Amino acid sequence: MGTQESNEGLNGTGPGRRALLGAAVLGAGGAVLGVPATARADEKHGGGGYKSLPKPTIIGHRGASGYRPEHTLGSYQLALDMGAHVIEAGDLVPTKDGHLVCRHEPEIGGTTDVSAHPEFASRKTTKLLDGVSTTGWFTEDFTLAELKTLRAKERIPANRPHNTLYDGRWEIPTFEEVLRWREEQSRKRGKQVWIYPELKHPTYFRKLGLGLEERVAKVLRRNGLDKKNSPVIVQSFEPTSIQRLNKLIGNPLVVLLSAANTRPWDFVETGDPRTVADLVKPAGLKEMASYAQGIGPTLDLIILKDASGNLTTPTTLVRDAHAEGLILHPYTMRNENPFLPTNFRKGTDVDGYGDPFGAFRTYFATGIDGVFTDNPDTGILAREDFLKR
Ligand code: G3P
Ligand code: CA
């Protein structure tokens, strides 16, 4: 299911001890600030398309969410300034009046200050979201104008106490605003900025009359970003959503894959009995390759862990997916101990950093094409180390 974060780890309660790496790091990967060259107005393609992206590709997960509240323009900007090759901007959910906004989930109690708005107290409710009872406030119950009165906040303050410094600073961005930001940054840098939006819970929203695929296609088309070589990769946990997108737009498409024993929610709704374990077999990969250019597996599908959470041996997924012509962009690398494999942790502080460089090195060695990370600066340095080896 799209809500699952297989390596999310523990929310801890320990005191903060480690300073975050941060905003001072400016990057490789095209962060050429102040360069007057302009991206040609008619050239909305990303050079040679997704195959021309640097490998391994460093993808800023929800921006630079290790350092800023996720899915804010502040988070996206920092990821770009740190040198991320592609920015996951954003996870897309709709408003009541049909606009696309950037939130990881439709429920926004944990990532905004909505609970501090008495005028919205009565909107708090419980819904079944992809089979999971979920209580809070949902984007589909708010107009865009209402959502714009809210401010973003840090989702996991126990792990990222420093990020709370920025609580209240940024609005919830719309997808249209993201595309304007992308255009402006491309112009400023003289090269196309790549983004990697994800459609969240497409089946859930379609049943509410808020189909996502057509809306995303329309916005991309209107901005001239719906072509094979456009600098926009589109992802979803629901294979049927990617199939639908394949008929609407030319962009590179990626099927996200959660834990092996799970079923994509669209499969649950349509009665398709297959699990992710089936999809990663050669027949499943071949089928996905008929409508997608890549897969985004959880890291645990790349290297198995033992019962203690230590990395063991790589699976054959990289080889098998490449054999079908699919690229692999697994998720999600994070610097804090609880999110790292046990053998790359240092101490037990939940807001302390372990050895992400060791973990990056191990995952890069499997031949993955890129990785989503909350810490793009760390990812860029790890990539440089890897390429020098
Ligand atoms: O999109 C890749 C990765 O973001 C998938 O996980 O749950 O963080 O959207 P999630
Ligand atoms: Ca995502």
Quickly list its features.
12 helices, 4-stranded parallel beta sheet, binds calcium ion, 15 strands, 7-stranded mixed beta sheet, 389 residues, binds SN-glycerol-3-phosphate
Summarize the structure.
With 389 residues, this protein is α/β, with parallel strands linked by helices.
Topology:
Blueprint: E1 57-60, H1 73-81, E2 86-87, E3 91-94, E4 100-102, E5 125-129, E6 132-136, H2 144-147, H3 175-189, E7 194-195, E8 198-199, H4 202-207, H5 212-222, E9 234-236, H6 239-248, E10 253-257, H7 265-270, H8 276-279, H9 282-289, E11 294-297, E12 303-305, E13 311-314, H10 317-323, E14 327-328, H11 356-364, E15 370-373, H12 376-388
Parallel strand pairs: 1-2, 1-15, 2-7, 3-8, 8-9, 9-10, 10-11, 11-14
Antiparallel strand pairs: 3-4, 5-6, 12-13
Helix pairs in contact: 11-12
Calcium ion is lined by residues 88, 91, 198.
